[in-house]
Design goal:
Helices cover 51% and strands 6% of the residues. It is mainly alpha-helical. Helix 1 packs antiparallel against helix 2 (37-64). It starts with a helix and ends in a 10-residue tail after the last strand.
Length: 109
């Protein structure tokens, strides 16, 4: 629903801005401007329809996603400046970090 509440007003605002810019440009050039009210109304309906369609697509995709699981609360039992336990973690010469289980040899050695 949030996608629609964002896309519909934004598309309507874009359509209204287009009409105002057109009127300003025509007035600045001294051109006569005759645009029936029905045409402006049709343009407004079209921009809202496009905004609705543009909002439905991401809303449907988002509705199909699995909601994320919350992170566990932080462990406040250790002081903030306490060193992390890095036992079991070794730097790989290739630059990645891998986990080593204590008591097990790597690569069959």
């Amino acid at each position: 629903m949030q996608f629609l509440t964002e896309s519909v007003p934004l598309s309507g605002l874009g359509g209204a801005t287009g009409v105002v810019v057109c009127l300003g440009y025509a007035a600045g050039r001294g051109w006569p401007f005759a645009l029936p009210g029905q045409t402006i109304a049709a343009a407004a309906v079209a921009t809202v329809a496009i905004g609705t369609l543009a909002g439905i697509y991401p809303a449907r995709r988002a509705a199909r996603l699995t909601p994320p699981t919350p992170s566990p609360p932080p462990d406040h039992s250790k002081p903030a400046g306490a060193a992390r336990d890095t036992s079991g973690v070794v730097d790989d010469p290739a630059g990645s970090v891998s986990s080593v289980q204590p008591g097990r040899a790597e690569d069959g050695q």
